[in-house]
Amino acid sequence: MTEEAIRRRVTLGAVARTVGVSIATVSKVINGRSDVAPATRARIQAALLDHDYVARGLGGVPQGGRTLELVFDALETPNNLEIVRGVTEAVADSGIAVVVGVVPDDPLGAEWARRIAGAQREGVILVTSTLSQQQRNHFTETGVPLVLIDPVNIPDSSMPSIGATNFSGGMDAAKHLTELGHRRIGMVEGRADALCGVARLHGYHAALAAAGITPDPDLVRPGDFTFQSGYQAGLDLLDLPDPPTAVFAANDPEALGVMAAARVRGLRIPEDLSVVGFDDMSPSRWASPPLTTVRQPFAEMGRAAAEALFQLATGETLNSTRVELATTLVVRESTAPPSR
């Protein structure tokens, strides 16, 4: 489809305003749903014709097949593969194809939203990305359903999103260490602007409070979810006059970085330092020793996002715009009672 044709394509929002109905009602007509009054259906169909709306095939299926777009901020971690698996499993019996990509270099999102609308996607699942309100508005205007997985931010409370119980996961991680007898417990934060990282930090503080441990600001170090930030934070923590006997890192790459820092300082894990991560990426099972971590159900998150997108694409209302799936503490060999 040419750029000119895409620009001529009126948005669902414009059609809805013309007829005086909701975007969901317009979507129902386009997708062949029967639960629209005949008179309203006729008015919507007339408006679609008047505005030269790009026609779909029978039952609302785009010519060439139905597709949804699964978009990542970057294709760098094993988590991505698990999410892809969950989404593809969810659509396996529907005849919908999954197109995988990365967020384009389009800060405002206008061209991105138009391209998605022009390709007649069923919708977009956006993973671990920042979405501005302006970008959200462009998707709303084009009528393209959008669901977020583990978003860095949420533009507003009505934005559908799937995540994990980051607060309770962080609390479980730190509680595991307090129950082993650790009192000096370090924390490597995630990105300061990431909701999930902030929630994990709050969980850490809640576990310390529950154990009667007074937080020590020196034991909390910044990180950005990378191995290198975990490595530097680990060196900083271990060089303190009174270093921690355990460290909880906001994700597995940071935890692996802390383990590397411990080896550089001549410490043994878990005899001299216990380490806990978050995510349960496959490398955490292959680490030496295997990493105790908090498992996020990435495949289940992908399935839940696809199911929510199906509901939105057919004009249904979601029971909840925010779904959080339970995390699980996975105890391996990187944690033990403190030796001092």
Map the helices and strands.
Layout: H1 3-8, H2 12-19, H3 23-30, H4 38-50, E1 67-72, H5 78-91, E2 97-102, H6 110-118, E3 124-127, H7 133-142, E4 146-149, E5 161-164, H8 166-179, E6 185-188, H9 195-210, E7 220-221, H10 227-238, E8 246-249, H11 252-264, E9 274-276, H12 282-286, E10 293-295, H13 298-313, E11 322-325, E12 328-330
Parallel strand pairs: 1-2, 1-3, 3-4, 4-5, 5-11, 6-7, 6-8, 8-9
Antiparallel strand pairs: 10-12
Helix pairs in contact: 2-3, 2-4, 5-13, 6-7, 8-9, 10-11
Short description:
The chain is an alpha/beta fold and 340 residues long. It is 42% helix and 14% strand.
Could you please describe the fold and organization of this structure?
With 340 residues, the chain is of the alpha/beta class. The chain is 42% helix and 14% strand. The protein contains 13 helices and twelve strands. The strands form three sheets. The protein has a six-stranded parallel sheet with strand order 2-1-3-4-5-11, with helices on both faces. The chain has a four-stranded parallel sheet with strand order 7-6-8-9. Strands 10-12 form a two-stranded antiparallel ribbon. Helix 11 (252-264) links the parallel strand 8 and strand 9 (274-276).
Strand order of the largest sheet: 2-1-3-4-5-11
Q: What distance separates the N and C termini?
A: 68 Å
Describe the global form. elongated
Q: Beta-strand level of the residues, as a percent range?
A: 5-15%
Query: How would you classify the quaternary structure?
Result: single chain
Tell me the series of helices and strands, N- to C-terminal: HHHHEHEHEHEEHEHEHEHEHEHEE
Stretches where pLDDT is under 50 for at least 5 consecutive residues are: 1-10, 55-64
Number of β-strand runs: 12
> Helix tally?
13
Radius of gyration, taken over Cα atoms and rounded to an integer in Å? 24 Å
Mean pLDDT: 86
Biggest β-sheet, characterized? 6 strands, parallel
Helix content: 40-55%
Helix/strand class: alpha/beta
